[in-house]
Amino acid sequence: MKLPDFSKSTKIDKVGVHERISRFCKRSIKTSAKKHGLHLALSMIDLTTLEGKDTPEKVRRLCYKASHLHDSLQGLPNVAAVCVYPTLVRVAKKELEGTKINVASVATAFPSGQSTLDVKLSDTKFAVNEGADEVDMVISRGKFLAGEYNFVYDEIAAVKEACGKAHLKVILETGELDTLDNVRKASDIAIYAGADFIKTSTGKISPAATMPVTFVMLNAIKDYYKKTGIKIGMKPAGGISTAKIALQYLVMLNETLGDDWMNKDLFRFGASSLANDVLMQLQKQESGYYQSLDYFSKD
Amino acid sequence: MSKLNLNKTWNYAAATESTNHILLKEKYDLFINGEFVKSNSKKYFDTINPATDEVIAKISEANKKDIDLAVKSAKIAFRSWSKLKAKERGKYIFRIARMIQERAKEFAVIESMDGGKPIRESRDVDIPLAANHFFYYAGWADKLEYAFPNKTPKPLGVAGQIIPWNFPLLMAAWKIAPAIACGNTVVLKPAETTSLTALKLAEIIQESGLPKGVVNIVTGAGNTGAEIVNHPDIDKIAFTGSTNVGKLIQKSIAGTKKKSTLELGGKGANIIFEDAAIDQAVEGIVNAIFFNQGHVCCAGSRLFVQESIAETVIKKLKDRMSSLIIGNPLDKNTDIGAINSKEQLATINKYIKIGQEEGGEIYQSKCSISKKGNWCPPTLFLNVSQSHTIVQEEIFGPVLAIQTFRTIDEVIEKANNTPFGLSAGVWTEKGSKIFKLTQELNAGVVWANTYNKFDPTSPFGGFKESGFGREGGLHGLKAYLKFE
Fold it and tell me: What does the buried/exposed string (b/e) look like for B346-372 if buried means 16 or more CB atoms within 10 Å of the residue's CB?
């Protein structure tokens, strides 16, 4: 495939993007539509723990939660994946055996990406060998902002190769990219370099995922699909903590990419506290009453 | 070509705005001299919900005698209102603005029931903007001498105001607020298909304690309007509506001392350059032509796309159209509501037919449309040129004529090649191009990288057959003042 000139990526008008977002947020999602949306959101969650203080025990608890979200509610889906550091992949993999829940591992000197390609590749290979189904890599933002798009492209392509069968999610860390024009450019680079998913953030930089940034990335995915017929996935991560926000993201997805993307194979939420809020809303849909958050397990 | 299935499986459940809190009378009379009075014609006509064909209420038809009464009461009220301390005038207008805000939800629901526009628009655009116009001109009431330094601004007298059906309350606000802020008194006639919010405004005006006769609201169709235009004691005509009626009005007041401002039709050019932010430009096209079902005088009904990006833009536009939700105006998720009246629907369909007969390539987004009510799906025409009827004439519906261009001079020439001159839109990331076009386009409003944005502080009005005089901003005051 002929590569586009990334310096000429589609321009983005920030004011126009914000206006469109406000339209998504004004959709009124009620009753049956709400229930459907909440189930969908739950099934798309990558339950995440990425802390320096993570231990095997913590990861085991998280995995149990992933497959037993709220047993008192019938017919709930599982989350899509559990996302951990490479050293904890093996623990998670063992704990999730027999479930359909994937193990995702961050890699490539997460979260800063400030390391050599060798280190990044061996980090990736280690995670894959430990059993990771999905790899979440970070791009070199410094190089990107310095205009070295070829470097960023080559790095992603190399990591993709190192992933083998594992799915590659490319984290743009949009909180460091400054403009929506840059977000679009970085999305194009990641997609053409071989990303299976593009992802907004590490969760370590503020702001993390926002709707405008996600919208720009969805449009990059749309344009690539229109050109090649290939479907790239999207993962907003960080800052999506309530069911209401998650539904707004799903409205945006529904009206930008549509049906084919409305599943966990092509859309994920990277979030840790979202699940419980969605569960609380679902419980309310069943019973008509809000329960205290203390009725939902925190792991 | 890879297809997108937008907005298909996950249908948003109906989120209908309740109408339980709406207080509507069965019959509405004329608001003259601070009271609701029965018309001398004793006739009533139906006002109909264009989405359901149901009769909502009966509206009184004013005849010559009623107009005479209304103008008389305005003339008497002018004596004291024009002499009232300007600060006091401002207070009344502020009060009206606040009362509109307090009852915003009720107004929004009635506007959507009576006119067919989606509640999202009446709630977020029409009603808040109407209140803002009253707030804005209330502030000017006691500052007129500062607005026009070294001149002595004086009110004109009795203003006859005739407004259209596309933004019923908002147009009433555009007309009444500056007129009474400047010390004039008013006889206003709303359009016959959408009189309800103006009559609700009359209730607010009554409650506000505004001196009797300062604002009179009379209802009826074209004949009633003609009685206002031809009444000898009217000092000023302010009209918003079609160019044809505007021409008639000018003929009837020729040779009289009556001043006038006319805000008439348009055929706005929306111009997309290859260096524009394409996705946002596509959104802009949608806002420009499908806002309020295209019942907008400044609608971007002629689209000019630079040839190099035409194919991309049209594909994206078709995709975007497939995600628009058309239906019940009272559903909060509705993007496009009902066509205002059977007559207007017939006009739109007539133009769609002409467009096809003249060889235009039509594209309409698929949508299921209810049997009752007046509906028209969003419509595009490709393969049309400046010589096609649908490119030349105002349709006032959700119908967009698309042409391409190669150079900036070509598009300026084509954009100006129309008897109208109300509005235009320019989409480019290059600032210098924007400045060139704002200089050279013959249009009262030129929006850059946006479309259909309104604000009380910004003057609005046209060139050529789109009318004259400005409404909004400082310029809007001038139309209601004389300088001695």
Answer: ebbeebbeebeebebeebebeeeeeee
B280 with B425: CB under 8 angstroms? no
Mutate to test the interface with A, among B2, B309, B449 (most CBs of A within 10 A): B2
List, by residue range, all CATH 3.40.309.10 domains of chain B.
269-448
A250 and B10 within 8 Å at the Cβ level: the answer is yes
The full DSSP string for B334-384 is -SB---S-HHHHHHHHHHHHHHHHTTPEEEE------SSS-----EEEES-
- From first CA to last CA, the distance across chain B in angstroms is 68
Contact B320, B463 (CB under 8 A): no
* Amino acid, single-letter form, for residue A185: K
User: For domain B269-448, is the CATH number 1.10.10.10?
Assistant: no
The 8-class DSSP code of residue A127 comes to H
**Separation between Cα atoms, residue B350 and residue B354, nearest integer Å:** 6
N residues, chain B: 484
Catalytic status, residue A30: no
Cα-Cα-Cα-Cα dihedral sign, residues A79, A85, A90, A95:
negative
Give the closest residue to B304 by CA, choosing from B290, B314, B315, B316.
Answer: B314
Q: What are phi and psi of A82, to 5 degrees?
A: -115, 135
Chain A residues with CB under 8 Å of a chain B CB are 10-13, 15-17, 19-20, 26-34, 36-37, 40, 219, 222, 225-226, 228-229, 250, 254-260, 262
A-chain residues within 8 Å CB-CB of B429? 11, 13
Token pair 């919900």 in the structure block, residue:
B49
pLDDT computed for residue B1 by the predictor? 58
Q: What is the pLDDT of residues B358-416, one digit of tens each?
A: 999 999 988 777 889 999 999 999 999 999 999 999 999 999 999 999 999 999 999 99
Q: Cα–Cα distance between A75 and A184 in angstroms, integer?
A: 38
pLDDT in tens, A19-75: 999 999 999 999 999 999 999 999 999 999 999 999 999 999 999 999 998 888 888
Q: Any idea which fold B27-264+463-483 has?
A: Aldehyde Dehydrogenase; Chain A, domain 1 (3.40.605)
d(Cα B271, Cα B426) in Å, to the nearest integer? 5
Q: In this structure, is the dihedral angle defined by the CA atoms of residues A116, A121, A127 and A129, taken in order, positive or negative?
A: negative
Q: What gap in Å lies between CA A202 and CA A37, rounded to an integer?
A: 25
* Alpha-carbon distance B28 to nearest alpha carbon in chain A (angstroms): 34
Stretch(es) of chain B classified as CATH 3.40.605.10: 27-264+463-483
Separation between Cα atoms, residue A76 and residue B183, nearest integer Å: 67
Q: Which residue has the higher pLDDT, B230 or A299?
A: B230
Which domains are seen in chain A, by residue range? 46-239 (3.20.20.70)
Q: Quote the CA–CA distance of B125 and B138 in Å, as a whole number.
A: 20
A169 close to A195: Cβ distance less than 8 angstroms: yes
Nearest CA in chain B to A252: B7
